[in-house]
Design brief:
Layout (H helix, E strand, L loop, with lengths): L1 E2 L6 E2 L18 H4 L6 H26 L12
Antiparallel strand pairs: 1-2
Amino acid sequence: MKECPFCLRPIDNEVVECPHCKNQVDIFRTGFYTRPDLSKKKTATIWIVAGLAVALLAFGLSRACNQPTRTPHSARP
């Protein structure tokens, strides 16, 4: 069993035309329309880079928010 790419209903593997939507299934090129899965190594790299970017952003925001405020020269004793 496989899935019709047009109506998404289950059909037999040998079928040339979908019995439900009457589209020709054999002309549909799945490699053109589907995205290949990412490897685990590539997925892990993406998560590490995203985590480092979030950590760097949080560190930068914490440094910017915790800077001491400057007082004008006339307000100093």
